[in-house]
Design a protein that fits this description.
eight-stranded parallel beta barrel, TIM Barrel, 18 strands, globular, 2 domains, alpha/beta
């Protein structure tokens, strides 16, 4: 079959927002105002407790995001929940009151539409929570509840809170706060389908699906795609799958996945022995041991071999997320490691995604430590912010960096290079991840390459021949166009 993915995604630069920690609105116009007990904004993050970030704050920071070059936002869950990360949904039709409620979301949708910024929401459809009405009714009424078949009850009594007793119901990773839906129940299936449709009708541009591999009911994700695409054929469906995702990327289910298969070798190549293994808690996100350019080239070619090119152009490419330690911390706070990896991120096929704060040097270990409040401007790493702006601007400027063909042209020791070729431009990207400067020779078809980004000395062959010699400083990258 011919695979088709949303065109806008191929031109998108995403910014992942963890709403409780990104921005606290100062100009909240909502009629409903609360004064909850909040943790100090810059206090160390904890598993429990809230810092008070909301959607009003996101609206007030749209100028910052647009200036950065962002044109798509991915939000971790925003539905009513009893957790600061909101992966414990209570009501799939209500934006959490602490985030400003549905009123704030409507205002956000209008503000982003005016700026042509897309919105992708997090769909937690594998499990609900103890506070979800249908499950709460079972806790109240036991086997008399009319919603009994919505979950996977295995015995009585249910123990939703007392860990010394069997839970007696299926929950995600045996966390009794997250009861799993019975997706084989047609009513459950229809409920989730309608939630997916409803928020598309409210103007969102896509869904990021939380742990979708856990949903094994035949035809479930195929129906989800059909119903979502019926409302908006350009809606983006991206799954949280950390491994080989061919099973879901057949053109009938997801458009793409979160591309951890890009992140892992990219970090292993650029951060190398600087990687702090103490900050790696997921075997599927384990960028160690260090690899050289040849090994990196091999990993990238293996990745390209997995999926249709149309899929690669829509992948959600990332280096870290709310589920990992922050890259700057993983790399021992080595700025060059972050810069090299980010250069590869913004020149790779697919949609790059920045985890909030990475662009200004936010650090953090394994969650919840990776979820600090966004720092005050005086604490921003301004050079890193400038670096991100420049790379994003280049990606927007050159279509070849977004949809052009990708060809590895060099993989020697710690120097890796590739070519992106589009209809109107051709660019060479080279990265020296080594601790020493390097001189490389490139046989090229065109003689008019110029340095458009980075630090490198170009020496052309005699009579302007088709050989370029580049002297690359250590731990630096460049782009020729």
């Amino acid at each position: 079959m011919i695979i088709k993915t949303p065109d806008w995604v191929k031109n998108a630069v995403f910014y992942q927002i963890f709403p409780d920690r990104f921005a606290k609105g100062k100009n909240n116009t909502s009629k409903q105002k609360f004064n909850p007990i909040l943790q100090p904004w810059q206090a160390k993050p904890t598993l429990d407790g809230y810092k008070g970030g909301d959607l009003w704050g996101v609206i007030e920071r749209l100028d910052y995001l647009q200036d950065l070059g962002i044109n798509a936002l991915y939000f971790t869950p925003i539905f009513q929940s009893a957790s600061n990360h909101r992966y414990h949904p209570h009501d799939y039709y209500k934006i959490d009151p602490m985030l400003g409620g549905n009123e704030a979301f409507t205002a956000l949708r209008e503000a982003t539409r005016d700026r042509n910024i897309k919105i992708v929401l997090d769909g937690v459809f594998n499990h609900a929570s103890r506070g979800f009405f249908f499950f709460n009714d079972i806790l109240e009424h036991g086997d008399k509840s009319p919603w009994l078949d919505w979950f996977k009850v295995e015995g009585w009594p249910l123990s939703a809170y007392d860990g010394s007793k069997p839970a007696n119901y299926k929950s995600w990773v045996d966390n009794r706060s997250l009861p799993q839906f019975n997706h084989d129940n047609p009513d459950v299936r229809e409920y989730i389908m309608q939630v997916g449709e409803y928020w598309l009708q409210q103007g969102i541009d896509g869904w990021r699906l939380d742990v979708p591999a856990e949903v094994e009911t035949p035809g479930f994700w195929q129906e989800f795609r059909d119903r979502v695409k019926a409302i908006n054929p350009e809606a983006y469906i991206v799954g949280e799958v950390w491994i080989d995702a061919r099973k879901w990327l057949d053109g009938t289910q997801f458009d793409a996945v979160m591309n951890y298969l890009f992140a892992v070798p990219t970090i292993a190549f650029t951060a190398g022995d600087r990687v702090d293994k103490e900050l790696l808690n997921n075997s599927e996100y384990y960028p160690t041991p260090a690899i050289d350019a040849a090994e990196y080239a091999h990993k990238i070619q293996e990745l390209f071999a997995l999926y249709d090119w149309e899929i690669h152009l829509a992948q959600l490419n990332l280096l870290d997320s709310h589920d990992t330690a922050r890259l700057l911390s993983i790399a021992g706070e080595d700025i060059d490691s972050l810069k090299l990896a980010t250069l590869l991120l913004f020149t790779f096929p697919g949609a790059p995604c920045i985890f909030y704060g990475d662009e200004i040097g936010l650090t953090g270990g394994i969650d919840p430590d990776n979820r600090w409040g966004f720092p005050e401007e005086k604490d921003w790493h301004q050079d890193l912010l400038k670096f991100h702006k420049e790379l994003i601007a280049l990606r927007h400027q050159y279509p070849a960096l977004r949809t052009g063909n990708y060809e590895t042209i060099l993989a020697e020791k710690m120097v890796y290079g590739f070519k992106r070729t589009g209809e109107d431009s051709e660019l060479l990207v080279l990265v020296n991840s080594g601790s020493e400067s390097a001189s490389v020779n490139l046989e090229v078809e065109k003689t008019n390459y110029q340095l458009i980004y980075g630090d490198a000395k170009i020496i052309r062959g005699e009579n302007n021949t088709l050989t370029l010699t580049l002297n690359l400083p250590s731990r630096q990258g460049c782009i020729l166009g």
